Give the backbone structure.
Amino acid sequence: MRFIMKLEYDQDFRLFRYRSTFFWYLALLAASLIVPALLDNYFISLLNFIAIYSIASIGMMLLTGYTGQISLGHAAFLAIGSYTSAVLTTKGWPFLAALPLSGIFAALVGIVIGLPALRLSGLYLAIATMGFAFIVDEILVRWESLTRGNLGIYLSPPSIGPLTFGSEKSFYYLGLAILILTLLAAKNILRSPTGRAFIAIRDSEVAAQTMGVSLAKYKTMAFALSAFFTGIAGSLYAHKVTFINPESYTLLVSIELLVMIIIGGLGSLHGAIYGTAFVILLPQMIILTKDYLPGFLRDQTGLEAGLYGLMIILFILFEPLGLYGRWLKTKFYFETFPLYKKETFKKEKKFYKAERH
Amino acid sequence: MVPFLNELLQTLLSGIATGCIYGLVALGFVLIYKATEVVNFAQGELMMLGAFFAFSFITFLKLPYWTSFLFTVLLMGCLGMLLERVVLRPLIGEPVFAIVMVTIGVGIFCRSAVSMIPGWGTDTLGFRTPFGEKFFRPGELVISWEHLAIIILTTTLIFCLYCFFRFTRLGVAMRATSQNQLAAAYMGISVRRVFSLTWIISAAVAAFAGILLAPITFVHMNMGFIGLKAFPAAVLGGFGSIPGAIIGGLIIGITENFAGVYLPIGWKDVAAYIILILVLMIRPEGLFGIQEKKKV
Amino acid sequence: MSFFRTENLSISFGGLKALNRVSFEISQGEVFGIIGPNGGGKSTILNCISRFYDLQEGEIFFQNQEISRIGPHRVASLGIARTFQNIELFKNMTVMDNLLLGRHRHRKPGLFQEVIFSSGVRKQERKSREKAEEMIDFLDLQAYRDLRVAGLSYGLQKIVELGRALTMEPRLLLLDEPSSGMNMEEAEDLSFWIMDIKEELGITIILVEHNMSLISEVSDRVLGLNFGEGIAQGSPQEVMGNPEMIKAYLGEEGAAIKR
């Protein structure tokens, strides 16, 4: 086990806790810069989707993992981001302007949602956000003058000045850059009073108010921030796939985002990325192993969804801390080897609830 | 005049019939929620499974309609118990969020499992009912027997459930458990058994709804999405209220149908959710629910 | 005018009148105890001051400002802090993070500066941690600074909650049965801390308690409540010796025996 001698307050809130962490991340950055040269387009495309969805799931993580507000309708923000970017760029606006505006517009809608949502908690909030997403979906289909309804909109790949990011490789660097910026922004928020206020709201709304945290202000802020990042992801998504229509933003997509952060591990930014990678790579892994499966399973289109549902159930039953939790437990095992005790992470026996609240 | 009245009546009746289905699914939600504080997002899928099983009994095993009905309800009851044992029991005491996600996972799994089973798959299937294609014609009006049957059967079921909860020991035990689990345990009520029973009843009610719904929407793996409309119904009625669930369902069903006939396209699909948002903004505890405050 | 004052506080839950025209006044720098049997309304008063409940009748004045209708988070920004009977800590955070939340009302830079983690934010973080460290020293929590609160013992959690309230640098501190669940040692430490809070930190305290020796040791004045009504007000000895109060705690026969 490592101990840090803390001599300055800065050590508490630095980005990297140990010197070695900094070098590991530097190495990771270097590796991620070389990767496109080593892999073929298919894999780079996967990485691109991981980057895009990671930005959205970081947004979700801020709202659900850190502030404890459940949203079953985040696909709506993805859609708003995509459509804003689509409408703006097809009207001639540059991508560099459309991208942040997608985020901002999504954030504004997030505020509109956040305000009535203040009075709701947990379950009711989940249902309300679900309903909200359905309504947005319907608006996108019916407002044909703006969105061309079910016909969809065609977009061109993102371009900044003379550079166009049309190929997988070039898009990769754009996605990577925005992902890193998103991570930095999120990390900074989390080590500031606002981030602590978010976590306070998650852990005890009553105590948070006693500390002067205005639930209204911070819950709305959480929604807005979350929507902002998701909107940016939506814009990137739209320019990557170059064709969008309302069918890409169903309830299933909202659930997917939620699953990403749960499998990754609620309450950690690492988790957002791990979870996203897992959910996106799962279908690929299924395709790879399809050859080894018995005949009647092999040809099913439902196999992917079925395994997906199964994964959700298994993770919640057996690994509620998600992939990041599993990673921490593994690290802990090696750090305390050979004194590790199996019971360290045993779940304590829970009993029934005594009273309604 | 008469054609207009006919149309009005048809819309109303089919609205009530749809509302009954929503109400039944919402009832399932509310039963489980009252007993265990958990919302079962897979309720729609349970309804779908009920429809598929009934289809199989009627089409593959060639059993008569009412026998299939009975068998399906019993079978789904067992499935409900199985679900509770295997998936929900280990999660007692865990945060609500986790349990909700598990039910979502179960729902997704059921849908895809259904798409992979030979004979079911992704097709839209149907079966004959004793009421199909028959109409009741009082005077100049035309009323479909199908809708009437749904309304009558639902009312009967609700009446039976009411008697069960009010007058039988088991029913009272279940009500006690939903108020205060620990106190119920002290009174000698087996809380685990109550949980199992709640899920059995909920699944059976879902199956009931599925069988009734099948002739209208036909049997297919996406039937569960209709279950999503039951959420606004449950919220409208007040999530802890059983009569509320039914009344909420009826209101949503009727509103939806009228929107479909008299409003431009698209309004029918969002009617339920607009009502939902309005309710949550104006009166979150619904028509019959109680607002609860945390005690510090 | 007085530092803190309530007038005719009244609130009912369903048919039960939890508080019935309760009035009292507190001067700056004193320790004001509130005692009474369970269900008497003690915690209800605190919850009304914290604005978790809406009063049906009556007003509350803090430094001559009426606070009977403001939002709960505004109470904190005015300088009123509290602890809870059943601990309301942020269980998944460390002790230090819990204390840092006490500094929330002093924050200055806005969201944008936080996103880029400007030097203003850095300075504020250092200052916040400095203040939190002062509290850690005051309450001897050094060993637990970076531990998750959920893993601490009950008594320690209570102390952390006290620390969190103090980190706010409040002017008025509401303590809701702080000694419940504590052993003799911890309860004695508590009485020293309360005296230190009063004398060194100059904070006015409202103390709701069952522990009579603690009340007599630290309180300047006491209010006795029963069934939501103020029975007696005065020095600890006066209130605890009041025959009505004795009857409230011990019943008719018990009061007879005591005499």
